[in-house]
Design brief:
The chain is of the alpha+beta class. The chain has helices at residues 3-13, 20-29, 40-50, 68-74, 83-104, 140-146, 172-180, 198-205, 222-244; strands at 17-19, 54-58, 61-64, 108-110, 119-120, 123-124, 151-154, 160-166, 188-193, 217-221. The chain has a five-stranded mixed beta sheet, with helices on both faces. The chain is globular, with a radius of gyration of 19 Å.
Length: 245
């Protein structure tokens, strides 16, 4: 079986879709994968990008072309889907990537209570987070805001290492206001959005009201997030392969 056929088989066995990070693990474990390549992950990456029978659903998420309509209906991404449902999918998808990145980096991860039952592809976000709720690391009035952050990572001392707000079409200004509440903490603050919104992010962050945070808040594009997720997943899959040698 040729390499591109194995990748397509892996997608088929995974309901027709998978993140690139998942494919690294799934494909390299398959007995049909007889790769003599010294760079199996680069081969998988090339295959999903160049094979006509595979299409990109979202950055870092690939599907079988033959399943395009079925995938569109399952994830509410068809041409008949309302923009609100598309927004819901996008938001929870990128939340899921952020949670998995945090887990791969050995942080404890959390999402807001109202998002726990939202789906990251086919499973609830709460299936991926390591915390039932964020740690109470400060005063209750500040914690009430912290518990609304889209994705939060916590270190072993139970303090926040990073906060992420996913802004697909909503106002970035509101997330910057939220982050102002945490300016006294040594925490990374991220706005996650499409690359086309980076200039908007820069302009809003320059407002006088956000002066204390202008060097603290960073922008992460969807593409960069998907590459971060894929890179860490590759490292984990590589470690698993080496452990078998």
């Amino acid at each position: 079986m040729k390499q591109h056929e194995v990748v397509q088989l892996a997608l088929k066995q995974n309901n027709g879709f998978a993140t690139l990070g998942s494919l690294y693990t799934i494909v390299t474990k398959m007995p049909e994968w007889q790769s003599a390549s010294l760079t199996p992950f680069a081969s998988i990456r090339r295959i999903v990008q160049e094979t006509p029978d595979i299409f990109c659903i979202r950055p870092g998420l690939w599907g079988l072309e033959a399943k395009r309509d079925e995938i569109g209906q399952q994830f509410a991404l068809s041409s008949f889907t309302t923009s609100a449902k598309v927004e819901d999918f996008n938001h929870s998808y990128y939340q899921g990537l952020l949670v998995e990145v945090g887990n791969l980096k050995k942080y404890q991860t959390a999402v807001p209570a109202q998002d726990k039952n939202k789906l990251f592809l086919t499973r609830k976000l709460s299936d991926f987070t390591t915390l039932v709720q964020p740690y109470d690391f400060t005063y209750s009035d500040v914690m009430s805001r912290a518990k609304t952050v889209d994705v939060s990572w916590y270190n072993v001392r139970r303090f926040p290492t990073a906060f992420f707000e996913v802004e697909h079409s909503t106002d970035i200004y509101n997330s910057l206001l939220k982050y102002m509440e945490f300016q006294d903490f040594r925490t990374e603050f991220w706005i996650v959005a499409d690359a086309v919104r980076q200039e908007e992010f820069k302009k809003k962050l320059k407002a006088t009201a956000f002066a204390p945070m202008q060097n603290a808040v960073k922008f992460l594009s969807y593409k960069m997030l998907s590459e971060w997720h894929s890179s860490l997943s590759q490292s984990a899959a590589q470690e698993a392969l080496l452990a078998k040698v």
